[in-house]
Write a structure and sequence with these properties.
200 residues, alpha+beta, 2 domains, four-stranded antiparallel β-sheet, 8 strands, 36% helix, 22% strand
Length: 200
C-alpha cells in the first residue's frame, strides 16, 4: 500500500466562503449605519448590541471557513482502490471518468513556467476531477508551481498519485491496448471515460 500526502485548494468550500463573505458585508454595513446615525432617530441603541456581536461572529466564521479551503489530503492506494482522507474510500471499478487539464500541466506537454513568466497569461490552477458511477465528483485544485494553497512538492506528490491511479485503471481496462501518451489512458484533452463494455 502506497500513501500520498499533499495540500490542495478544496473548491467545495467556495459556497460557504461566499455565504460568510456576504453575511460579513451586511453586518458591517448594518453596524456602521447604526454607529453613524444618531441614537434614537431610526435605530434603537439595543440594535447595536445585537449587530456588533453578529458582525464579529461573521468575520470570525469567514476567516475560519477560508482557512479550511486549504485541505490536507492523505490518500492510501491499494490493489482495489484508494482511501482519501477528504473524500472517503473509492474502488477503481467505481470510477466512471477522469478529467485532467493536460494542456495546462507542463509535465504532460503544456506550457512551461517560463511561458507564464514572460507573458501576460495567468498561471493556471488545474482542476482534476474523478467522477464515480454514483455521480459523486472528487475535485482537487493544485498549482503546478506552487501557490497560496499548495507547494511545488505537493503537486509532485499529487502527480505521482495521478500516475499510479491511471496506471491501475490502465491495467484494469486497457492492458491489451497500447498506452496513450497522457498518463497511459487519457486522450489529448486529458479525459478518460469508462465505456459500457469495460464495466465490471
Amino acid at each position: 500500500m502506497k500513501t500520498y500526502q499533499f495540500r490542495f485548494n478544496n473548491s467545495s468550500k467556495t459556497l460557504a466562503i461566499l455565504i460568510w463573505f456576504f453575511t460579513t458585508l451586511v453586518t458591517i454595513a448594518l453596524t456602521g449605519t447604526i454607529l453613524v446615525i444618531p441614537s434614537g432617530s431610526y435605530f434603537p441603541t439595543w440594535l447595536l448590541l445585537i449587530s456588533l456581536p453578529l458582525m464579529l461572529m461573521a468575520i470570525y466564521k469567514l476567516f475560519k471557513v477560508a482557512s479550511k479551503r486549504q485541505s490536507v489530503e492523505v490518500i492510501t492506494l491499494s490493489e482495489l482502490g484508494f482511501t482519501s482522507s477528504c473524500f472517503g474510500a473509492v474502488l477503481f471499478s467505481d470510477i466512471s471518468s477522469i478529467k485532467i487539464p493536460a494542456r495546462e500541466i507542463s509535465l504532460l506537454g503544456g506550457h512551461k513556467y517560463d511561458y507564464y513568466k514572460q507573458s501576460e497569461a495567468n498561471i493556471p490552477n488545474p482542476v482534476v476531477s474523478v467522477t464515480l458511477d454514483n455521480g459523486h465528483i472528487l475535485r482537487w485544485v493544485l498549482g503546478e508551481w506552487g501557490g497560496l494553497y499548495n507547494s511545488k512538492e505537493d503537486f509532485s506528490v499529487f502527480f505521482a498519485f495521478l500516475t499510479a491511479l491511471t496506471d491501475q485503471l490502465y491495467q484494469l481496462y486497457h492492458s491489451d491496448e497500447p498506452p496513450n501518451s497522457y498518463l497511459q489512458i487519457l486522450d489529448e484533452n486529458g479525459s478518460w471515460e469508462k465505456k459500457n463494455q469495460y464495466k465490471i
